[in-house]
């Protein structure tokens, strides 16, 4: 069942419930009103009959029966029975014995002042009548043929109106639901035409105000992210294949040249050393590609722990110097807080160290003197780390693209690298809700500032 059918049926069910309750209340109150009104007429007839018979000396029972039969205002099939204080019938027009009461009923009339009940289609009302000499009980029975007929007509009208209204509601609800869902159906039709080959297409956002428009905006936003991801994937595959193919081609070529003829031991050693360097380069490229893929796949699985940021910087410095002893890494701690807790961050130790090492390595690699200055300070609940080098700088045209995988600025083509490091750094920093600020001038160097929000969350150190 689609949404249009659900909306139509639910709308019809709600209207049906409202109409059913309303019509039942109308019919119930009409029935109660008819019964109450007819009982009053029965009681009035009983009293008037008793008055006419008892208080008028000239009228006897025979004359009264004749008068009742010829009375145009008489009730339909009315029956009247009068009992004296000895429970004896002193007057009766009930030839069919419709009114048959026991002494208990007579006593109930004397105690309660009246009694009402039904016998088949007849309704019976009993009331006491007291004159200055005697006490009587008068029962009147009659069939409210006109009231019952009106009630039956009312019932037929209500049932007819009920089902007619439901039919109208179903038709109008179907049309209304169709019109209400038309923008959504339009969005669905547009989405069906979007494939991996035309991700640039966007869904119509309509009036840009209602929920359908919000859905379209959200879908367009998702399409933008998918388009960017597809473009990034294509670029990644193209560059990754290039970065992996070149070292393999070089290695293969060197080995093939070495096998062309017999060479001296020194030539073989040079070839092996060159091949080993290419393999190391290939290994570094693969490790960085794996790191980039791992970070993308584990965005929601950070292994956070409580780490002191200055300790992380010293650890990264020591690890990098062991690999590249000729690097010069200066760490300056300025404006440290009085509270030691403000130096602690809730971070993934492995990932943050990877980001710091990449930033230090990049700065040293591109600086003429292979030197980087790392400055740490804390202010306004933020821990800031600044990496400053004296490299060639980055042009304003290249600056927005430095975090793209495999992108290399025109100023850094002389240095070895694959253009993956800053992409890794960017993703790690974003995963930790931190931010990056890059400032660079051509010929004067580059400064990258990392800003972490400080946290006092208590975590066990790792």
CATH topology of the largest domain: Heat Shock Protein 90
Percent helix, as a range, is 40-55%
CATH architectural group of the largest domain: 2-Layer Sandwich
What is the H/E order? HHEEHEEEHHHEHEEHEEHEE
- The total tally of domains equals 3
What is the count of β-strands? Answer: 12
Tally of DSSP helical segments? 9
Provide the gyration radius in Å: 50 Å
CATH superfamily annotation of the largest domain:
Histidine kinase-like ATPase, C-terminal domain
β-sheet strand percentage: 15-25%
Overall morphology: rod-shaped
CATH class of the largest domain: Alpha Beta
Strand order across the biggest sheet?
2-1-5-4-3
Structural class: alpha+beta
Overall mean pLDDT stands at: 82
């Amino acid at each position: 069942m689609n949404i249009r059918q659900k909306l139509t049926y639910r709308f019809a069910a709600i209207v049906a419930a409202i109409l059913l309750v309303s019509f039942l209340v109308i019919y119930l109150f009409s029935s109660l009103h008819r019964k109450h009104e007819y009982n009053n007429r029965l009681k009035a007839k009983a009293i008037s009959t008793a008055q006419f018979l008892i208080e008028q000396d000239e009228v006897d029972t025979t004359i009264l029966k004749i008068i009742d039969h010829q009375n145009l205002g008489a009730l339909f099939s009315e029956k009247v029975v009068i009992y004296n204080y000895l429970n004896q019938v002193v007057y009766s027009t009930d030839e069919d014995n419709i009114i048959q009461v026991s002494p208990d009923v007579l006593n109930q009339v004397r105690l309660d002042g009246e009694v009402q009940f039904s016998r088949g289609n007849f309704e019976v009302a009993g009331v006491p009548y007291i004159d200055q000499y005697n006490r009587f009980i008068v029962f009147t029975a009659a069939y409210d043929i006109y009231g019952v007929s009106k009630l039956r007509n009312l019932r037929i009208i209500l049932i007819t109106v009920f089902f007619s209204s439901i039919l109208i509601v179903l038709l109008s609800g179907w049309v209304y639901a169709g019109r209400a869902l038309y923008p959504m159906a339009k969005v669905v039709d547009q989405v069906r035409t979007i494939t991996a080959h035309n991700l640039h297409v966007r869904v119509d956002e309509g009036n840009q105000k209602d929920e359908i428009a919000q859905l379209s905006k959200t879908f367009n936003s998702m399409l933008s992210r998918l388009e960017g991801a597809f473009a990034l994937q294509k670029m990644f595959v193209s560059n990754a294949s290039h970065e992996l193919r070149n070292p393999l081609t070089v290695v293969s070529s060197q080995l093939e040249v070495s096998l062309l003829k017999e060479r001296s031991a020194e030539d073989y050693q040079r070839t092996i050393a060159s091949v080993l360097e290419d393999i190391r380069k290939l290994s570094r490229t693969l490790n960085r590609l794996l790191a980039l893929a791992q970070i993308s796949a584990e965005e929601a699985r950070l292994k956070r722990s409580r780490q002191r940021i200055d300790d992380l910087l010293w650890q990264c410095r020591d690890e990098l110097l062991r690999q590249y002893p000729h690097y010069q890494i200066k760490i300056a701690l300025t404006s440290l807080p009085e509270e030691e807790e403000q130096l602690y961050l809730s971070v993934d130790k492995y990932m943050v160290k990877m980001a710091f090492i990449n930033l230090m390595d990049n700065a040293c690699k591109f600086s003429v003197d292979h030197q980087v200055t790392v400055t740490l300070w804390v202010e306004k609940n933020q821990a800031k780390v600044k990496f400053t080098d004296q490299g060639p700088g980055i042009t304003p045209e290249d600056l927005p693209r430095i975090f793209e995988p495999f992108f290399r600025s025109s100023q850094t083509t002389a240095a070895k690298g694959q253009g993956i490091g800053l992409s890794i750094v960017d993703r790690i920093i974003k995963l930790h809700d931190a931010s990056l600020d890059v400032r660079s001038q051509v010929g004067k160097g580059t400064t990258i500032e990392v800003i972490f929000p400080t946290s006092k969350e208590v975590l066990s150190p790792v």
